[in-house]
Specification:
Elements (H helix, E strand, L loop, with lengths): L3 H14 L5 E3 L2 H15 L3 E3 L3 E7 L2 E6 L1 H8 L1 H17 L4 H10 L8 H7 L14 H10 L5 E2 L4 E2 L2 H10 L9 H12 L2 H10 L1 E3 L1 H6 L8 E6 L5 H8 L8 E5 L6 H5 E3 L2 E3 L2 E3 L2 E3 L1 H11 L5 E6 L6 H5 L21 H7 L14 E4 L2 E4 L10 E8 L10 H4 L3 E4 L9 H5 L2 E2 L6 H18 L21 E2 L1 H16 L17 H9 L16 H18 L1
Parallel strand pairs: 8-17, 8-18, 9-14, 14-17, 19-20
Antiparallel strand pairs: 1-7, 2-3, 3-4, 5-6, 10-13, 11-12, 15-16
Helix pairs in contact: 1-4, 2-10, 3-10, 4-8, 8-9, 20-21
Length: 552
């Protein structure tokens, strides 16, 4: 059996040269036993999640501790058990004896200069037979002569608690510097109180080398972008350009709306009629399905595209998936979550439903996926979203949610292959082009926004693609039903008289649309419904200049 000195040096050597940064997983059964043990030993509540746990340090105050502490405790097992026997011996032989306590406190700084014979004389009253074969006198004298922490207070003739002393000894060896590191000393002390649970813990620990799984073959550099801008500025088109050439299998597109829920997004338990009767499997939602595909194929990029992200309650729809949006520089989620349904679905062969009894362990891409594996976004999964900045939004995105995305403004410009035909599209057979009208209206909105002190009105501007031209034309009906309705019901809802030539208070959208159409599609557009028709003059001037140029 190794002596305490040799055992200490052995553990210290492992800690200095073999630090493992792997993740640590524990089974539910050992979590339950540890919860009971820690509460029994310390009267403190412990709450386990996937790879961390919370210890209640005082009422409503908690220390957040990583599961790696248990892996470190496993490395210290033999040393801790030896120390526990020694400190139990001190509790029995020295703590009750005031003279021995005083002797220990008075001479501990000089113990290193004493030989074993002299130390035996000093502590001749000790009943070393209590040490039996688990430890020996040499271990005891090594402990008191080489432990560079004070045992107690000479003036008050006190002796520090064994929990404190054992923890301090171990922390001299284990390289921990976090605010919760002091708890590690207490943790190994609690574990030493029940050797059976301590042994069970050592056998139960599952190591997930996340560092290696991160770096092995997963395409990195994911994007997490919300494209925002006025209605019709081309946000969805921008995403289509970014994902051009990507197969449909590698993309998942969803639309958020007021009735869209977390169950729709993630998945839910639904009844399914099978040959064996009615069953209730987990039906995966778009998030779960694209996550599974990305994990299974580390060499391919995948995209989750969320249209109109702020038309639904994004915080409620994402739920605890919100945790996954923080990412390391290598692309993996910085924090994980537990979801047994998604976990089972990922381990299943079916692409839509989870199996009744999926394999307990399955190779998913480069990861050995088990029942205890928590969820993270992989580096090859990007998230794109669109967001209107118009006041017609149903929900707003809070700052905590937005800061986890890159926000990119889609400028209201005519760009792309169809830009020329879109800008020059004639409205309702007239000579007024879409660019002329759109520029005029947006100028009015900006002027009102400035004069009325309503910066939000700028979000009401007409996007270049608010209404799309067909064959270089925008029909009179499409313009009336989309553009006029938007201007009446939304952009100028509280100041209609500023834009429309309202002759009396009985004017309505119906009368405006009817007057503009001026009969069937062949009849000329009635632009006089607008208070300012200078855009028509601008178009005529532009046409005249063009004619003059051709004449010259």
């Amino acid at each position: 059996m190794l002596k305490l000195k040799e055992l200490t040096l052995q553990v210290k050597e492992r800690m200095e040269h073999n630090i493992d940064f792997s993740e640590v997983l524990l089974s539910n059964s050992i979590k339950n036993e540890l919860t009971e043990l820690i509460y029994k030993e310390s009267n403190k509540n412990v709450f386990f999640i996937e790879r961390t746990f919370y210890i209640e340090t005082s009422p409503k105050h908690y220390a957040i501790v990583p599961n790696q502490y248990f892996s470190l405790a496993k490395e210290c097992y033999s040393l801790v058990i030896r120390l526990r026997y020694l400190f139990d011996f001190i509790d029995k032989e020295i703590r009750p004896n005031s003279e021995l306590r005083r002797t220990l406190n008075a001479f501990q700084d000089d113990f290193s200069n004493q030989n074993v014979t002299n130390l035996e004389k000093i502590f001749s009253e000790l009943n070393f037979s209590l040490l039996d074969n688990r430890v020996n006198k040499e271990d005891f004298f090594y402990l008191i002569s080489n432990f560079n922490k004070k045992f107690g207070n000479l003036k008050e003739n006190t002796l520090r608690a064994s929990e404190d002393l054992l923890g301090a000894y171990v922390l001299n060896i284990v390289p921990l510097t976090t605010a919760a590191s002091g708890f590690f000393g207490s943790l190994v002390y609690y574990l030493s109180a029940n050797v059976d649970i301590y042994k069970k813990l050592c056998n139960d620990i599952s190591i997930v080398n996340l560092r290696n799984s991160i770096s092995d073959n997963y395409i990195s550099n994911p994007f997490q972008i919300i494209y925002y801008g006025v209605p019709g500025s081309g946000k969805s088109h921008k995403i289509d350009e970014e994902t051009k050439g990507i197969s449909d299998e590698q993309k998942m597109r969803v639309v958020f709306h007021p009735e869209y829920t977390n169950a729709d997004f993630v998945g839910q338990i639904l009844p399914v009629q099978t040959n064996e009767g009615l069953e209730y499997p987990f039906k995966a939602g778009p998030f779960s399905r694209i996550l599974k595909r990305a994990l299974e194929n580390p060499d391919k990029p995948y995209y989750l595209i969320i249209e109109e992200i702020n038309r639904g309650n994004a915080a409620a729809i994402f739920g605890d998936l919100f945790q996954l949006l923080d990412r390391y520089s290598n692309g993996w989620s910085a924090y994980s979550i537990e979801n047994l349904d998604i976990n089972a679905f990922i381990r299943s062969e079916d692409e839509r439903y989870s199996e009744k009894n999926p394999p307990k362990t399955k190779k998913v891409g480069n990861i050995e996926f088990t029942e205890n594996t928590s969820l993270r976004l992989p580096p090859n999964l990007s998230l794109y979203a669109t967001m209107n900045t118009s006041d017609q939004n149903v929900f707003t995105l809070d700052n905590a949610f937005q800061r986890r995305w890159d926000m990119k403004l889609v400028e209201n410009k005519f760009e792309g292959d169809d830009a020329e035909s879109q800008r020059n599209a004639e409205i309702g057979g007239s000579e007024v082009t879409w660019e002329q009208f759109q520029t005029h209206i947006n100028k009015k909105i900006s002027e009102m926004s400035s004069s009325m002190g309503m910066s939000s009105m700028e979000d009401k501007r007409l996007g270049c693609w608010f209404v799309k031209a067909e064959d270089n034309k925008i029909s009179k009906d499409k313009f009336a039903e989309k553009v006029l309705k938007y201007l009446w019901d939304d952009a100028f809802k509280f100041s209609r008289e500023e834009i429309f030539d309202i002759k009396d208070k009985t004017s309505s959208l119906e009368s405006i649309v009817s007057d503009f159409k001026n009969g069937d599609e062949t009849a000329p557009c009635n632009w006089n419904i607008f208070k300012d028709t200078s855009f028509i003059q601008q178009q005529n001037n532009s046409q005249s200049e063009s004619d003059i140029g051709e004449t010259e």
